[in-house]
């Protein structure tokens, strides 16, 4: 019998390697004489700057009959109730002019980078749905006995896979988008969907061909039509086989979505460029952007692994 590996020893080896890598990174960064300013990045993740409440017109700060502090206009009309503001900058008897600060209202809102993450998720999810649908049709066309359909599918797949995604984005946005009057976001979704669908089609085709031909013959002998056999017998089995490569393609889609920033879609990458220009902290910003992408891809990878385990249990 093969001896069992010493788990404690090899876990310590893993920790040692990771510690060595972090030490190497630290020593490398210390040699470039760079001042790290991580605090500059935080407001672009969660913005906690208070909202400034300004006076809409000239007036006086007075108390009404109930003792409530209000802003009263010169003519005597009540302009604003100030009782619900905690951080008041004025007191009763003050004379204020239009634009003066009356109070600060505590708040938090998503920063530029967090908004970029949301746009990236929207782009990826919508493109993923369309890529699966288009890829499914392309895979079935690829396996069709109809020569025209098969050659059309092969031509599309080879054309899309053989040209850079960046070029395709420019073509979709400046040519197709101009003709059809598409918005930037829509153009980005179209380009990502078309590109990813070509890879999804080949993955699904390989999965379908991996199912034994006897499965189709058996289902047809039971009286099922070809679409019924494909929907109820072949595709469910193929889905389990193609789930890992599909997961890898979906992760690539999230990373590929960064290219749509070239057509001024404020995704995570473009948001990172904007933040760099405003903070002059390039290393901190791009490391944060990389970690946010890692969070997205890692979450998707974890979800796919959980789905795989669930499907394996159901077998």
From TrEMBL:
Family of this protein: Belongs to the binding-protein-dependent transport system permease family. HisMQ subfamily.
GO molecular function: transmembrane transporter activity
Taxonomy of the source species: Bacteria, Pseudomonadati, Pseudomonadota, Gammaproteobacteria, Vibrionales
Functional note: Part of the binding-protein-dependent transport system for glutamine; probably responsible for the translocation of the substrate across the membrane.
Domain ABC transmembrane type-1, first and last residues per copy: 117-304
InterPro entries: AA_ABC_transptr_permease_3TM, ArtM/GltK/GlnP/TcyL/YhdX-like, MetI-like, MetI-like_sf
One family name in Pfam for this protein: BPD_transp_1
Origin superkingdom: Bacteria
Family matches, as CDD domains: TM_PBP2
NCBIfam families per record: HEQRo_perm_3TM
Keyword Transmembrane: yes
Name used for this protein in its record: Putative glutamine transport system permease protein GlnP
Keywords, comma-separated and alphabetical: Amino-acid transport, Cell membrane, Membrane, Transmembrane, Transmembrane helix, Transport
PANTHER family: GLUTAMINE TRANSPORT SYSTEM PERMEASE PROTEIN GLNP (PTHR30614:SF20), MEMBRANE COMPONENT OF AMINO ACID ABC TRANSPORTER (PTHR30614)
Cellular component, GO, one term: ATP-binding cassette (ABC) transporter complex
Chief place of localization: membrane
Annotated organism of origin: Vibrio casei
Keyword Cell membrane among UniProt keywords: yes
Transmembrane domains' residue ranges: 9-28, 117-141, 153-176, 188-208, 283-304
Cell compartment(s), UniProt: Cell inner membrane; Cell membrane
GO terms under biological process: amino acid transport
Topology within the bilayer: Multi-pass membrane protein
